[in-house]
Write a structure and sequence with these properties.
5-stranded parallel sheet, Rossmann fold
Length: about 120
């Protein structure tokens, strides 16, 4: 199972995703803003990051840029999430492994995470 970091400023949504992914065996950590995500990534190395594009303090786009420029993190799997139809057209969004539109069903989220983590879908 994967070690996943969820970066989401909507606390209810973050906890819902955490519970759904923990239920199928993943280890899931939460942070609620962009600066906390960068601090977390300087100390820990998850297998995958579930990243809201519109965050306080530092946007998901800026986080993607920093991740891809860091040789220790460059291969980190990134799933970008946004409710904005403009998000997938942003240049940094092309650096994500996957961009999803909110809301996403829990079943679909689990399936996509399993695929990116190289596991059989739950």
């Amino acid at each position: 199972m994967a070690h996943i970091l969820i970066v989401e400023d909507d606390l209810v949504l973050a906890q819902l995703h955490q519970q759904a992914l923990t239920f199928v065996g993943h280890t899931v950590d939460l942070v609620y803003d962009g600066e906390s995500a960068i601090t977390y990534l300087s100390e820990m190395r998850p297998d995958l990051i579930l990243l809201d594009m519109h965050l306080p303090k530092l946007s998901g786009y800026e986080i993607i840029t920093q991740i891809r420029q860091n040789p220790d993190l460059a291969d980190l799997k990134i799933v970008g999430l946004s409710a904005s139809s403009v998000a997938p057209t942003m240049p940094q969004a092309r650096e994500a492994d996957l961009m999803l539109m909110k809301p996403i069903s829990i079943v679909e989220l689990r399936r996509l995470i399993a695929r990116l983590a190289g596991e059989a879908a739950p």
